[in-house]
Specification:
Two copies of one chain form a homodimer. Chain A has 150 residues and is α+β, with helices and mostly antiparallel strands. Helix content of chain A is 23%, strand content 34%. At the A-B interface, helix 4 and strand 2 of A face helix 4 and strand 2 of B.
Chain lengths: 150, 150
């Protein structure tokens, strides 16, 4: 599966992952561990907040998107090694939402200083069951070049 | 605690959170749930990878940094409501590392279209016990203006 070297990556290649559904309990459990704010913890308290109802932590959406990507997302030779990127949450993720990640390679750059590798920039849209985008992660991944290994 | 409105935010304000320590078991447990790659799951398998040893998922570092910030980080009136931002992991987080987040306001912008709120950009450095930066999160937070509420 992990057979994609830098030479195999091209702008415009796309992948789609499987899906995962969050219920209110999953949202609250993640929040208790990592993001203890009322809009992630309690339906009633959430009504009076910015989100006007229970919403998942953005970091839960990020972590679940990563799970989908590692399960059957992008088949890079070293795995998914992220140097960093840009992340945004255009709208909240709600109890009952089913998430799927749609990925597209938007840039491929061989390293000048280390020609055995490069950076592949992948735009990952996490969409809910209505097709609305709940997260955009433009990730810079470290990918080995076939030429130059071993 | 959550008493910081847009008018109270100024470039250069800083906060420091408490700390959290990760052991190998915590790294593997997070990976089993969200990031099933060999360098996050198994010490032996990790030796032959990019990371040359067990390393925490970047999303675990992000989630734990959020926990520290919500525990006693940045006291904004609506809580920590992130629209998005830039994230990077300059070096791996290893078993036994103790993480602390150092935050600084780097930009304050009132919304032109919705003057009851603005965006406060906070640069959050997560550092290990040696002072090395393991994550930089430049986060755009939605913060209400005192003038214009209720």
């Amino acid at each position: 599966m992990n057979d994609h070297y830098l030479e195999d990556c091209a702008v415009g290649q796309t992948w789609t992952t499987g899906s995962v559904t969050l219920d209110a309990e999953a949202i609250k459990a993640f929040a208790r561990a990592y993001d203890m704010q009322p809009f992630h913890l309690d339906e009633e308290a959430a009504k009076a907040t910015f989100f006007r109802g229970l919403a998942a932590s953005g970091w839960q959406v990020a972590a679940l998107s990563m799970r989908l990507l590692t399960e059957d997302g992008v088949p890079f030779a070293w795995g998914i090694v992220g140097a960093g990127g840009e992340i945004s949450w255009p709208r909240p993720t709600r109890p009952g939402d089913t998430l799927t990640v749609h990925s597209e390679i938007v840039e491929v750059t061989r390293s000048k200083s280390r020609p055995d590798r490069g950076i592949v920039t992948v735009r990952n849209e996490t969409r809910n069951q209505a097709g609305d985008v709940v997260q955009v992660l433009k990730a810079n991944l470290v990918v080995p070049a076939r030429e130059g290994q071993g």
